[in-house]
From TrEMBL:
This is Short-chain dehydrogenase. Keywords: Oxidoreductase. Belongs to the short-chain dehydrogenases/reductases (SDR) family. PROSITE patterns: ADH_SHORT. It comes from the Bacteria. Residues 9-194 form the Ketoreductase domain. InterPro entries: KR_dom, NAD(P)-bd_dom_sf, Sc_DH/Rdtase_CS, SDR_fam. GO terms for biological process: fatty acid elongation. GO terms for molecular function: oxidoreductase activity, acting on the CH-OH group of donors, NAD or NADP as acceptor. The keyword Protein biosynthesis does not apply. The keyword Lyase does not apply.
Length: 256
């Protein structure tokens, strides 16, 4: 009987430790489907705690690692540690780590601009580069990069120009890498959420949240689990002929 990749592959999830986050929901989804999971987060303790919880609840192998995705040497080092660990070969990479930027354009400093691009764009580049060799060697690879509706419509939800520019860069990275990796059977896709009920936006008022939900044709924001389900499917065997795409999940707020 054919054994699906989820039974003998590891899914690497960046930004996986945050409470009520897309990363945590994604790591949980992978574990629920039988994937081994490597959780990478700047909050190393949170990553290790979640890994222990998922291993106990779902009976899978899981490990958590402290990682700042803007540090290319650290990314390479964590990739090497995972390769040398008892985890199965890496078969999927979900680049979820990201930070917002609600600052108006004329108030954006050089430091803020560099930081937003480093986390949201360069971090995805570093992890793709670090984990692709394992996928090529293992003969199975799925990369899912997290973009945003802000990249498609030019902000308009919460974050402004630096975030939109970085997430647009993620789309370019995704499409180019997808074209290059397609002959190897490795798929690379982007997920582009609209407003989501997560903690990334920080402290907002009940009134602003209600107004945001009312502006969406479906009348509500996405849940982290709904976005995670899309990431999981793009990592499956069933999605093996889908690559270079931007998968919108925005409740009809932006239709192109």
């Amino acid at each position: 009987m054919h054994t699906p990749p989820s039974q003998h592959r590891t899914a690497v999830v960046t930004g996986g430790a945050g409470h009520r986050s897309i990363g945590r929901a994604t790591a949980t989804r992978f574990a629920r489907e039988g994937w081994a999971v490597a959780i990478l987060d700047i909050d190393g303790e949170g990553a290790r705690t979640l890994a222990s919880e998922l291993a106990a609840e779902h009976g899978i192998a899981a490990e958590g690692y402290a990682l700042d995705v803007t540090d290319s040497a650290a990314v390479d080092a964590v990739a090497a540690r995972i390769a040398e660990s008892d985890l199965p070969p890496v078969g999927a990479l979900a680049n979820i780590a990201g930070i917002p930027s609600p600052v108006p354009f004329l108030e954006v400093t050089d430091e803020l601009w560099d930081r937003i691009l480093a986390v949201n764009l360069s971090g995805s580049f570093y992890t793709c580069r670090a984990f692709l060799p394992a996928m090529l060697e293992g003969g199975y690879g799925r990369i899912v990069n997290m973009s945003s509706v802000s990249a498609q419509q030019g902000g308009g939800v919460f974050s402004k120009t630096p975030y939109s520019a970085a997430k647009a860069g993620v789309l370019g990275l995704t499409r180019s890498l997808a074209r290059e990796m397609a002959p190897e059977g490795i798929t690379v896709n982007a997920v582009s959420p609209g407003a989501a009920d997560t903690t990334i936006r920080g402290n907002t008022s009940a009134e602003s949240e209600a107004a945001l939900s009312a502006s969406i044709p479906m009348g509500r924001q996405a849940s982290a689990d709904e976005i995670a389900a899309l990431v999981l499917w793009l990592s499956s065997e069933d999605a093996g002929y889908i690559t270079g795409t931007t998968q919108a999940i925005n409740g009809g707020a932006y239709i192109s």
